[in-house]
Amino acid sequence: MVEQILNHSYLALFFPLAGFIIIGLGLGRESRKLASAVAIAMATLALCSSLALAWAYKLTVLEQPGLYPDQTLVATRTSWLNFAPGMSADMGVLLDPISVMMLLVVTSIAFLVTIYSIGYMRHDPGFVRFFALLDLFVFAMLGLVLATNILQMFVFWELVGVSSYTLIGFWYEKPAAVAAAKKAFIVTRFADAFFLLGIIVISQQAGGFDFSLLNSPAIATLLNHQVAILGLDVNLLSLTSLLIFAGGWGKSAMFPLHVWLPDAMEGPTPVSSIIHSATMVVAGVYLTARMFPLFAAAPGTLTVIMTVGALTALFAAVIAITQKDIKRILAFSTLSQLGYMMFSLGVAKTTPGGDILVFGYSASMFHVFTHAFFKCMLFLGAGAVIHAVHAGDLEQMGGLRRRLPWTYCAMLTACLAIAGIFPFSGFWSKDAILLAALASGHLLVFAVALVTGGLTAFYMFRLFFLTFHGAPRHGHTDPEDPWMTCAIVILTVPTVFAGGLEHLFTATVIPALPAPLVHSQAAWLPWLASGVGLTAIAGAWALYGQGDLRLATRLCQRLGLAHRIIFNKFYLDEAYLFVTRRLIFAGLAQPAAWFDRQVVDGAMDLCATILQAGGQTIRCLQNGQLQVYLGAAIFGVFFLLTFVYLI
Questions:
Q1: 116 and 240, same domain (yes or no)
Q2: DSSP labels, 414-480
Q3: Domain limits at 642?
């Protein structure tokens, strides 16, 4: 039985792909009930196959450490691309702790989002198209996390980008949605170009694409030498690892490539939920974790990862405090939490014995797991609120506690989790990240993480109080939809209890090497982190708890220019527009377009005109009149004789 499950591990990918084909190609626009039935059926089958695969992996690998010391199993493998003798890329399914974890997270979140979407998209004219694109997106993400080699990952990586483009721009009749989709596509493709270059370099040096090969110490040693590039000596290991990390930098929207993620809120709320919780934006963190042994061999790369992650976490949290749109606040919250995950991977260091302190690695993966559920619930809850009041601005909400009781309780649970309050899941994973930063000796990063945690608690409860407390600032409120409420309530279970799996992540599934005595020496850390979070919640209550915006408004007016700069996201979007429109488009693209039209096309047009004129002349001569032919012959003979005489 177990062997059969492993041999058919590809079924986890097959069901979403089948859903895309059946719904997208086999059903008409009006087949709403059939489309929703197929979508739920395929999401259920994908989740069941993932659970079965996780169970088979546990029995085969985790319970037999002697046979699988590295906890890795390639369940299926088939020949795919042969580039040269001895260098090929296979297509397969890789099972290890982080791929199985992501497999379960993606399929469970996709299942709940599918249920939720039946209620949320009920009256949308693109109902059938939505579920087809959603299944394509899930298929792409599953292919990414189960890839056995970096080339297979890159193919699905790009498919994730394409499918997310279609989902972000789902409401293509809205100019803002179209602009957001193009922005996401262009920014992530810019980063992916460096990722592809890194793949080319490392595969050429290693002679293969498999992760087991690329992450081996031998490849790190092979790459660890200086090369001359444009007259500069560059360490090839550092360069290659940074090129690969650039793909994750863009996909996970790290500063300053974060500008596409808040605008991606123009898509339907279920899209925002699945993109932000467990799939697209987490792909960059997953790539960094997947290539962690290679990155760990390049300390400079880990420093970049740590710095970018910490900066993104603090930067996004500061902006989230000032935003008014409920989905944009959650978008910046996602950016901040991604920064947490990323710098946790970057705080690894080498111990005196030569080992890598990977407690931050385990903590990061644990936070990926817990964050997926409470962030998905936050977005689905925000969608329920928007669905009820038909607005996304916090100033048009308030007093929804009695009208949306189930959503109120679920959102309260999720806000407590993301604020890191005991005993909710976020408390355990964020505490592990703080512990990793402290144990590694990066005290500045630890301080940034602690402050960011306080800011997170403040802006999340600002959102919560302005949405559910105080007097209503809106008109008619629709009741809770049962489909939407069902998915939201189910998510409260992992939001509350997922923290109990901490030991599974940090000791059993993903073994770590914690610093000696760090747990006993840092027994004060949970108290400090909880104190910061509770203090921030108290501050949010003082300013917004009664739904009265006057005190907060006066405070913002006193801050003046500082508040305006933060509210406008430090004007980075305007800076990007200036660079792209004024410098790139006007300074480079338009002159290049003029040269192409006037010089290149002009030269071709001139050649065509000359040939056309010659053809017209010949056509006039070839008119079938004998006297014209005779005259032309005499003229030709006369011309030749004159020419010969002159020579």
A1: yes
A2: HHHHHTT-TTSHHHHHHHHHHHHHHHTT-HHHHHHHHHHHHHHHHHHHHHHHHHHSSS--SS--PPP
A3: 591-646
Is residue 338 a part of any domain in this protein? yes
CA distance 184 to 503: 37
In a domain, 580, yes or no: no
Domain-embedded: residue 579: no
In this structure, are 25 and 164 located in the same domain? yes
On whether residue 611 sits in a domain, the answer given is yes
Spatial distance between the Cα atoms of 561 and 441, rounded to a whole number of angstroms: 36
At residue 193's C-alpha, the angle toward residues 187 and 198, to 5°, is 135
Q: What is the pLDDT of residues 483-510, one digit of tens each?
A: 888 989 999 999 988 887 776 666 665 5
The verdict on 342 and 470 lying in the same domain is yes
pLDDT (tens digit, 9 = 90+) per residue, 361-376?
888 889 999 999 999 9
The model's pTM: 0.88
List Cα–Cα distances, 216 to 191, 292, 374, 388, 614, in angstroms.
25, 11, 35, 53, 68
For the record, the structure tokens of 559 come out as 């801050």
Q: What is the pLDDT of residues 591-623, one digit of tens each?
A: 888 888 888 888 888 898 888 887 787 777 677
| Same domain assignment for residues 240 and 171 | yes
pLDDT in tens, 496-549: 888 877 766 666 655 544 444 345 457 788 889 999 999 999 999 988 877 667
